[in-house]
Amino acid sequence: MSVKISNNLPAIDLLKRENIFVMTEDRADEQNIRPLKILILNLMPTKSVTETQLLRKLSNSPLQVEVEFIHVASHTAKNTDSKYLDSFYTTYEQVREHRFDGMIITGAPVELMPFEEVDYWPELSEIMRWTTTNVHSTLHICWGAQAGLYYHYGIKKHTLSKKIFGVFDHSVMEYHSPFLFGFDDTFKMPHSRYTTVFKDDILAVPELELLAVSDEAGVAIVKSSDSRQIFVTGHAEYDADTLALEYFRDRDSGLDTAIPKNYFPDGDSSRPPVISWRAHAQLLFNNWLNYCVYQSTPFDIDEIGKK
Questions:
Q1: Domain residue spans in the chain?
Q2: pLDDT band at 1 (very low <50, low <70, confident <90, very high)
Q3: Which of 110, 95, 101, 190 is nearest to 146 (CA)?
Q4: Would you say 3 and 59 are in contact if contact means Cβ atoms under 8 Å apart?
Q5: How far apart are CA 305 and CA 307, in angstroms?
Q6: Of 179, 137, 125, 132, which Cα lies nearest the Cα of 37?
Q7: Which of 82, 197, 284, 299 is surrounded by the fewest CB atoms within 10 Å?
Q8: Topology of domain 3-240+275-303, per CATH?
Q9: In whole numbers, what is the pLDDT of the chain averaged over residues?
Q10: pTM over 0.85
Q11: What is the C-alpha separation between 43 and 136, in angstroms, rounded?
């Protein structure tokens, strides 16, 4: 199948050049099936880049996925034109009466700030509360994962002495979890963050399952026992050059950012990075769509959230 998105979203052309089948609204409306309705709260400043990364992962599935993007209305975007947001995004107020099979809450470049000092924290808190009744399964990424763990379970984030930056090995902790079906004992995933959550804090919450950890990057994947809330502290969706672009941007700005670990061959930033996480990244998103969303979401979408 394919991912269904707005007819004119710029990511369509790029995905088509990569031979990813994208179904526009017009064509999807001709098919008599119920697609999965996925809502993406995009908190990243470079909206179009994040859109393409996530759509690339959601597209490579036998399921038809209908994607809608929202942004936080309580924050003024500095890197995205308002016309772009008006064309391709809605707000929470516009969707709050709707129900969705799945939702993705992205990371955001605010991790060093206390949650309550983020200008859109009240709105994000309301959205996360809303997911417990109007969304079947929510996937939180990076800062979004830390925010979700804090909001839903009171788990605090902790500032690190140095940035976790690079591609790291992870160990699977729960081999029988559907979310990790098909995973090898160890897998790689990129990280780029200054904060972390502690393993012991996760294990102290009976409703949470610790699925994967890294010796270097710490807690990596956590989910609620009912799979309604998924938390991934890394960036499985990252493109091959995402860490490189971040590193060169920081270096050119005069920041003392260390070269990303386990990324450039022999640590040489003049050489193109070798992708070592793509297969497991795709498996992660496919497993979420299949086992956490499609296999258990009600066929009647209006039944989501009802006992």
A1: 3-240+275-303
A2: very low
A3: 110
A4: yes
A5: 7
A6: 137
A7: 299
A8: Rossmann fold (3.40.50)
A9: 91
A10: yes
A11: 21
Residue whose token pair is 């992962």? 57
Q: Single out the catalytic residue among 68, 123, 209, 237.
A: 237
Q: Which residue has the tokens 């605010």?
A: 110
Catalytic (active site) residue 237: yes
In whole angstroms, give the CA distance from residue 129 to residue 147.
12
Instruction: Please say if 191 is a catalytic residue.
Output: no
Q: Is 292 a catalytic residue?
A: no
The mean per-residue pLDDT over the stretch 111-136 comes to 97
- Res. 269 pLDDT band, cuts 50 70 90: very high
Among residues 71, 191, 235, 280, the one annotated as catalytic is 235
